[in-house]
Amino acid sequence: xxxxxxxxxxxxxxxxxxxxxxxxxGAKVAICGRDERGVSSVVHDLQEKYGNSAIVGxxxxxTSEADLGALFALAKGAFGKVDVWINNAGTSSAQVDFVAQxxxxxxxxxxxxxxxxxxxxxxxxxxxxxxxxGALYNMEGFGSDGARQAGMSTYGASKVAVRYFTRSLAKExxxxxxxxxxxxxxxxxxxxxxxxxxxxxPENHRKAKRxxxxxxxxxxxxxxxxxxxxxxxxxxxxxxxWMTVPKAILRFFTxxxxxxxxxxxxxxxxxxxxxxxx
Length: 278
What we know:
The protein is of the alpha/beta class. It has one domain (4-188, 217-244): NAD(P)-binding Rossmann-like Domain (Rossmann fold, 3-Layer(aba) Sandwich). It has ten helices and nine strands. The protein has a seven-stranded parallel sheet, sandwiched between helices. It is globular.
């Protein structure tokens, strides 16, 4: 029987790439986003490709318990169950010093990345307890491992908190049938990442571009890998990471990664080497 997967923030970027990855592997998928027209458009396109019964979607603010509850109910009603819930929805500020950040943006980043993950986890686990099974995955990001970088204090703080929360939750539920894990996509070239640098300090962008030459990837490369990893995983409290230290080091010694353009002028990755089998 095919898996039923819910992905918050699944209308673009890594969320959409994961949705397509799951659908291509025979899973049923429910996605959400804040823009109703955007959700409808993405669902329509995916239904044309994978069938009307394979994908559903809804407008959802992940800081709203009611919206999240309705999303779980939508997936359960359409697919009869929810095997996997992925708290992917996230946002960031421009990469500028903390004191230069708008306080409303600071609140939005923390509310979406941390509170949205916690509320989504609560709704998902409540529903999974009612059905007796399920797996929860929370999305890591820069700062999850304690790394620091100028202009990333707000985003990084929200993500290190997500890691602590997820690992604590996994410990609480270790003796239960519910898996609680994290996903680490690494640096993915998405609209969100491009905006962080385009609207931030140009010097920060200049410094980051050199390392991103080797460690950044397109969403359509990373998303399917994460889908495969989730479908194969049977353990709780694991971190499914696309970019590892050995992989990054290997890329420094691979000529094709020195030549590729991950941040071209029109924000589209071109002249890429063939997708490595990683």
